[in-house]
């Protein structure tokens, strides 16, 4: 059977577009797997990460009202959370550094940051910024890797495919953070709880703003 001119043009256009995508992918300009991940947003409970679920469960009882997830990556606890990340590829609500948030003072009832504080250049400056956007009486919940179990982070090597935001600026165990906090408290934050988040992996810290 002979194809009509219109069908031939459509076939050739589809072939041409497919070849362009293949060329861009092979050249490193386009990664189809990354493109799929960019649109995927996950919420608790996450079927892909039981460890993350357990960490979330240690801080969830403290979270109520309007909240923000700082350094959200592609997953947050509640669908209602405002999502902030420096990496635009995870499709946050706001693209911003965790220590320079685009919100007015005392906007949220709670803020949580899961595996984020270790990436901050200055620990106390980050906590001060988080306290700024939380209302008086509000909660800041932190989950932090415990270096006694995770070991010091070592980058895989510098190349264009490595995520530059993975680097750890500081390493703490639960004990060393408590020692740090004893001599470096943030003036308007009180630590009201702390403990193991995930056995042999992470710890949590709960601060209340006063």
How does this model look, in words?
- The chain has 210 residues and is of the alpha/beta class.
- It folds into two domains: 5-30; 37-209, Vaccinia Virus protein VP39 (Rossmann fold, 3-Layer(aba) Sandwich).
- It has six helices and nine strands.
- The strands form two sheets. It has a seven-stranded mixed β-sheet. The protein has a two-stranded parallel ribbon with strand order 1-3.
- α4 (123-132) links the parallel β6 and β7 (134-145).
- The N and C termini lie far apart (79 Å).
Low-confidence runs of at least 5 consecutive residues: 5-10, 28-37
When the domains are counted, the total is 2
The average pLDDT is 85
The number of helical segments is 6
How much is the radius of gyration in Å?
Answer: 22 Å
Class based on secondary structure composition and strand pairing: alpha/beta
Which percent range describes the beta-strand content? 15-25%
**CATH uppermost class of the largest domain:** Alpha Beta
CATH topology of the largest domain: Rossmann fold
Q: Tell me, what's the shape? A: globular
State the CATH architecture of the largest domain. Answer: 3-Layer(aba) Sandwich
Short description:
With 210 residues, the chain is of the alpha/beta class.
Keywords:
210 residues, alpha/beta, Rossmann fold, 2 domains, 7-stranded mixed β-sheet, two-stranded parallel sheet, 6 helices, 30% helix, globular
């Amino acid at each position: 059977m002979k194809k009509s001119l219109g069908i031939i043009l459509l076939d050739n256009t589809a072939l041409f577009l497919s070849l362009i995508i293949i060329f861009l992918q092979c050249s490193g300009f386009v990664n189809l797997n990354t493109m799929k991940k960019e649109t995927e947003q996950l919420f608790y409970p996450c079927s892909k990460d039981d460890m993350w679920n357990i960490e979330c469960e240690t801080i969830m009882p403290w979270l109520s009202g309007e909240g923000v997830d700082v350094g959200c990556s592609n997953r947050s606890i509640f669908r209602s959370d405002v999502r902030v990340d420096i990496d635009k590829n995870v499709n946050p609500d706001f693209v911003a550094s965790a220590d320079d948030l685009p919100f007015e003072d005392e906007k949220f009832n709670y803020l949580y940051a899961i595996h984020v504080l270790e990436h901050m250049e200055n620990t106390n400056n980050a906590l001060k910024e988080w306290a700024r956007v939380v209302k008086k009486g509000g909660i800041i919940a932190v989950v932090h890797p415990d270096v006694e179990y995770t070991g010091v982070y070592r980058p895989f090597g510098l190349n264009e495919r490595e995520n530059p935001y993975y680097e750890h600026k500081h390493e703490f165990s639960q004990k060393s953070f408590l020692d740090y906090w004893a001599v470096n408290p943030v003036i308007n934050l009180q630590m009201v709880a702390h403990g193991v988040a995930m056995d042999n992996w992470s710890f949590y810290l709960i601060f209340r703003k006063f």
